[in-house]
Amino acid sequence: MPNVQRRPRRTVVPGVLALTAALMLPTTATAQAGTGPAGTSASSAEETAPLPALIEGSGAAIHPEGVAWDPTRSAFLIGSIRYGTVSVVRADGVPRTLIDDPELIATGAIRVDVARNRLLVTYDDVYAGPGALLSVGSTAETAGRHAGLAIYDLRTGRLQKRIDLGEAPGWHLANDIALDPAGNAYVTDSFSGHIFKVTPSGAKSTFLYAPALDAGITDNLPNVGLNGIVYHPDGYLLAVRYDTGAIFRIPLDHPDRFSEVTLQDHVPGADGMALTADGTLYAATNTIRSNGIDGLFRLRSADGWKTAYTVSKEASPEAAPTTVAVTPYGDYVLSSNLNVLFGSGGTQTRDGLVLRRY
User: Fold this and answer.
1) Does domain 21-357 have CATH number 3.40.50.2000?
2) What one-character DSSP code corresponds to residue 277?
3) Residue-wise pLDDT tens digits, 34-46
4) Which H or E element spans position 342?
């Protein structure tokens, strides 16, 4: 991993971080996540109340790309491309910092592993072209090279381990995470065409590489290939290529026997995905670097994902939706104006975020 020289962060919200004595309390469904603005506790009656259909969040230029539902807090967890943090967001929309790891430049996907009390986060310094610095900690040396998976204690936010996935030559973007029942994590690298496997002990290996998964490089800019990935309870992964919208079915026991799913509609611009209990696959799509739509696709399969049909596709009122969080109160799509951040190479930002129920 390149030596990370961090620029000073801007504070996401006033107040102290969540790594406080409050987090040392036993976790329950209403456990405290820390202290928020002006000493406001991150625990509130909102934890047990149904969520509103629309959460318009605050946060100065926070630009989260990933979101997950944390059932231990009854709250969302979001990352930050700009600051490299992980924050707790409840119905009031205020991000309260849980993790502020100085080694993380940008945080992407988030996965909650309740069974093992773990929080898994992809980290990067996202390369968006020559001269582009998207994060406050970005440098020319680390952009496109600093990439990996960080694992934290879900209750306290304390670091357990970091796994460097950017050691090999070339461009890297550790993007999304799928978890299997044994606790193995599968991480897509959007720039190299790899899926990495990380065991619960932290051992890493290449789970799969194939030219069909590699989007290549155009005009010295790596194309965004493999992106969203989910685990299917029948023992395989579903992964999507952002650039083409192709979805691949990858058996866990024989990843080399992967196959492309025959789709009624390809989903170009597919970013984060989620698989619901009834077998519906959600894919949030955006136009940050694709010719797709800003929207949400719902896909189903009747033959074990050899083929799939489109249940619905819905345009997003917000620009650049990135992923989906499945909650007891409905399924929420995250948008945070990443089109502005990426389109300007990091010179322009927007405040806030939107979580919209679909």
Assistant:
1) no
2) T
3) 333 222 323 333 3
4) helix 338-343
